[in-house]
Specification:
The chain is an alpha/beta fold and 296 residues long. It has one domain: Rossmann fold (3-Layer(aba) Sandwich), CATH 3.40.50.720. It has nine helices and twelve strands. Strands 2-1-3-4-5-10 form a six-stranded parallel β-sheet, with helices on both faces. The protein has a two-stranded parallel ribbon with strand order 6-9. Strands 7-12 form a two-stranded parallel sheet. Strand 1, helix 1 and strand 2 form a beta-alpha-beta unit. Helix 1 crosses helix 6 (189-205) and helix 3 runs parallel beside helix 4 (127-142). The radius of gyration is 19 Å and the shape is globular.
Length: 296
């Protein structure tokens, strides 16, 4: 019998990637649920949606991700990223259903000189990071069987993301200013989907406490935003797609309402050792997504 994965949301990059990747697995069925049936801003819709879906695993993928907008929309960010996650945990615990929850590098302040491990102190810089951290804490406090997967710099063939923006802007501009003093791990949502299924299956198969808790899950290797843009354009140029010259700039030269971590690098060795999940290198995954977008 196929295992049903209830995924919160319908249009997000990770949700659409989970739906796509599920076709590779004969024994996994993905059920994406969004508004109005499952509205994370309306807590009273969550329990009935989960009960109706009868899932084997819940993937908490939907989130308030407008980082800059969150600075002036704090109530909505905390409702969706924190309170709703706590409610999902409460319902999951009562039904004894494991939860795979996606979180973020924004729980850190970016001041560490090396890649963050799961036990490093958290110190989010803005509303988005604080709301996501609260979601982690509320899920853990709910007593639900869970794995929290922190990821970063997500891109895919779907939705709004850095890679798609770079290709679009390069169609009309020869030179682009891109921040070069923030570093992180570009991560394909398609790779995230494969990892989520592996973690979910592990939770169903074993009660081992080492499979529970917080894990870092990003593409292998790190880059600055300028590095990432250059790789995107190099791949696109080889395929006859749009490309531009990258002009490296500092964070100070590109101010935003929300402060970003200077160092977003996450050490993912715990995920590899406990769950047997090692993400592909970000360059090869970038190439795959660029190829798909240009051939569409």
């Amino acid at each position: 019998m196929a295992r049903r994965y209830l995924v919160t949301g319908q249009e997000g990059q990770v949700v659409r990637s989970l739906v796509e990747r599920a076709t590779r697995y004969q024994d996994i069925e993905v059920l994406p649920l969004g508004r109005p049936a499952l509205d994370l801003s309306q807590l009273d819709t969550i329990e009935s949606a989960i009960l109706g879906a009868k899932p084997h695993v819940i993937v908490s993928a939907a989130a308030y991700t407008a980082v800059d907008q969150a600075e002036t929309d704090e109530a909505a960010a905390f409702a969706i990223n924190a309170a709703a996650v706590g409610e999902i945990g409460r319902v999951a615990r009562s039904l004894r259903i494991p939860v795979v929850h996606l979180s973020t590098d924004y729980v850190f302040d970016g001041e560490k000189s090396s890649a963050y491990v799961e036990t490093d102190p958290v110190n989010p810089l803005g509303v988005y990071g604080r709301s996501k951290l609260d979601g982690e804490l509320l899920l853990a406090a709910s007593g639900a069987d869970h794995a929290i997967l922190r990821t970063a710099w997500v891109y895919s063939p779907y939705g709004k993301n850095f890679l798609r923006t770079m290709l679009r802007v390069a169609e009309t501009r020869d030179n682009l200013n891109v921040v070069a003093d923030q570093t992180g791990n570009p991560t394909s949502a398609l790779d995230i989907a494969d990892a989520v299924f592996k973690v979910g299956e592990n939770l169903l198969a074993s009660d081992d406490t080492r499979l529970r808790g917080v894990f870092h899950m990003t593409g292998s290797g790190d880059a600055s935003w300028a590095d990432f843009a250059s790789e995107i354009f190099a791949a696109s140029n080889k395929m006859g797609g749009p490309s531009a010259n990258v002009q490296p700039i500092t964070t100070a030269e590109y101010p935003t309402p929300a402060k970003r971590p200077q160092n977003s690098r996450l050490n993912c060795s715990k995920l590899a050792s406990e769950h047997g999940v090692s993400m592909p290198d970000w360059q090869s995954s970038t190439l795959e997504v660029v190829r798909r977008l240009l051939s569409a």
